[in-house]
Amino acid sequence: MIRSVTILALLMLIALLVCAPCAAERHRVIVSTDIGGTDPDDFQSMVHLLVYADDLDIEGLISSPYGDGRKQDILDVIDCYEKDFPNLKTYSDDYPTPDQLRMLTKQGETERAPYCGFRKSTEGSRWIIECAKTEDDRPLHVLVWGGLEDIAQALHDDPEILPKLRVYWIGGPNKKWSPDAYQYIVEHHPKLWMIESNATYRGWFVGGPQAEDLGNETFVKNHVKGKGSLGDFFVSQKSDIKMGDTPSVAWLLKGKPDDPTQPGWGGQYVPAWRRPIKKLDRMPMPHDQIEIFGILELSLPTQNVPADSQATLNVENQKLVGHFSDNALRFRFCPKAAKKYNFTIGSNVASLDGITGTIKSVRPSPEIAKEASGLYRNWWTDTPDPAFAEDGHHGAKTVNRWREEFLRDFSERMLRCKLPKPLN
Question: How many Cβ atoms are within 10 Å of 130's Cβ, its own excluded?
Fold first, then answer.
């Protein structure tokens, strides 16, 4: 009897040892960021990522901006990380060295994709392919904080990598700068595993408990400012919390990354319905409507236009470059808010120059969540249920419900930058 119990105990111990790595599996991560471009929040999110770098296997940091940002902006944050590294490594041997991070920092696409959705390979897109083809059974999580250009390019150049990828995209305003790359993926790679977070991510800085030291400004003042070189760099970029891209990282830190419908720090999502697109062969009119974050595709008939014809679709702060082909002038536009949009075409073709149009963007009905698309079986997006909206942002409450928990955790991480781990 004693022998049997001993053998059973030994078998149980072996089972625990075998399963232990599974329970604490580290996630492979590539970040594609428009850091240094049009919004300082990517700098804040990069600081957050690096203080949690011991919990993740970071395999790539790709500069993929629309705007002025470049690879050097990532390297600037790593320089701050290097100053704090002596303290950070006292808490964990798993923090990557600054030089390791520099080696995996790459330059991605710096221009918007053309109408076809891709242009040419970049150092960033090639690195995505290389990492995806590494012999590793774990999926490769690509956290996209800007445009989708490098993801679209990688999928175009090597479609076989698709099953390996898990993409969490902070869409919303980023989607308006990347409609052509987005639509290319929708039409040519619908089986991609994708979280499309157009509004949920706003829960990181909108709503939730913000009293006392949890306010966007007071938290930074009390728990980030003065906390090492990374903390001071964070504050130099913006003195209050934005960090709109951070939910993509937080989703891997606490939750069930394999099931986006389950709650976690990075939000909770619903299976995507058919990706909304409105196609018109004329300029939009006031009675036309489009779903917020949907794609408006214009295909305006043209005849006998000169070879050097150029046109832009001017709307708010955007000048969308037109594409002439097959006797048509084509544009794609994505509305980031529920409101009316006015368009004007500027062109060196007299018959096109000055043409105007108007369209209204509307929020989807909550009922649309019942129409999950069989075509996009691995695609998730913001819940349209108003019960989870914050200040009109769908799904934001699925993030900000965790606000105190994830900010307290972040504050403890920032202390690592300032002080080494106590010996006792």
Answer: 15
Burial of residue 314, with CB atoms counted within 10 A of its CB: 0-12 exposed, 13-18 middle, 19 or more buried: middle
* 263-to-28, 138, 384 alpha-carbon distances in Å: 21, 22, 16
Q: Is the pLDDT of residue 23 over 70?
A: no
Q: Which CATH superfamily is domain 25-273+370-418 in?
A: Ribonucleoside hydrolase-like (3.90.245.10)
Q: Quote the CATH superfamily of domain 277-362.
A: Immunoglobulins (2.60.40.10)
* CB 33, CB 49: distance < 8 Å: no
**158-176 pLDDT tens trace:** 999 999 999 999 999 999 9
Is residue 53 within 8 Å of 96, Cβ to Cβ? yes
By CB atoms closer than 10 A (0-12, 13-18, 19+), residue 244 is buried
> What Rg do the C-alpha atoms of the chain give, in angstroms?
23
Report the DSSP pairing between strands 270-271 and 277-280. unpaired
